[in-house]
Here is the input.
Amino acid sequence: MPGLSKRPSKPELIVHSASPFNAEPRPDRLAASFLTATPDFYVRSHGDIPEPDGPAHRLAVDGQVATRLSVSVAELAARFAAHEVEAALQCAGNRRADMQAVRPTTGDPWGVGAIGNARWSGVRLADVLRAAGVDAGADLHVAFSCLDRCEVGGERFRYGASIPLAKALAPEVLLATGMNGAPLTPEHGYPLRAVVPGYAGVRSPKWLCAITVRREPSDNHIQQRDYRLLPPDETGDAPDWSRGVTIDEMPVNAAICVPARCAELPAGRTEVSGWAMASSRRVARVDVSCDGGRHWHQASLRHGASPWSWTLWRIALDLPRGGQELTVRAWDAAGQTQPSTPEEVWNVKGYLSTAWHRIRVTAI
Ligand SMILES: Nc1nc2c(c(=O)[nH]1)N[C@H]1C(S)=C(S)[C@@H](COP(=O)(O)O)O[C@H]1N2
Ligand SMILES: [Mo]
Here is the structure.
């Protein structure tokens, strides 16, 4: 692909680190559009963007399969039916900054923008696994290997992660070559990535080059020694990862995107809006409070065409003059809601930061 550059072209984003590139959109841009435009879509990378060889790039499928496959990206599109899914991708570290306000954690201080909602296109992972003759009923795992070289805590490795076979065979899981009607851009995994709707972003590997069906989850650092929810007494640099819970699905979460934190706005009628997300469950209700959670008002919801989209919510509130705290919490279809404070869910890696989102504003 001519003109591919290793430097990400995302001038609008707030950059947490330039190399590897980690950046998120301003909250007001995020809430402005139901489908997140690619330039506004957060980027989370553990290594620098690799240089794959475009449509000639090959994907290997091996392990516990009847027939090994090796297909180019062009062959994938020719051999398997095209599918699309509208789905949100959210980093397990989204909203970590709120948790870091309680006590330090490792990781970048993501605000509310390590989430985006896109239309992904490609082929179904299930179709490819069936072509390789996988035993669909077996208790197996599908491990992904990627091109990018990462360095985490002094350990160097190529990115890899896995998902259970049952999820890999679900119709919403894609091997994607496109995002929002265009080929994937370099920072989002060109030419091939997995998209695993309803799971944390970490399980949607970019720059995918191999799939191995295994009896156990991936051995990769990312699967075994990262992206697990640790108990609060694990506070050191070298936690006992076996005490952690693997993060696949994520708990219900919501954030205020407009107005901005610390905004000064005219007293009176004020539009408040943002996103809510509950993994594979529907967002059933979004409550907004301007008195710290004593009284709640229900926002109106906009759901996606697909159950894998996020939900955008909005409400008009009457703000009296003075300093105010605006708070949001969402409920999912199982009647579950968010913890009221980040203290309740603090963990040393700063994952699953889902406390009621609170911002201070001043009405003048
Ligand atoms: N190969 C590879 N895939 C990856 C990552 C990575 O660093 N390398 N980061 C993961 C994480 S943690 C997230 S949240 C999503 C982010 O996807 P995006 O950058 O397209 O928004 O990609 C996932 N896939
Ligand atoms: Mo992530």
About this structure: Residues 44, 91-93, 201-202 surround molybdenum atom (ligand 2) (CB under 6 Å). Residues 1-5 have pLDDT under 50 and may be disordered.
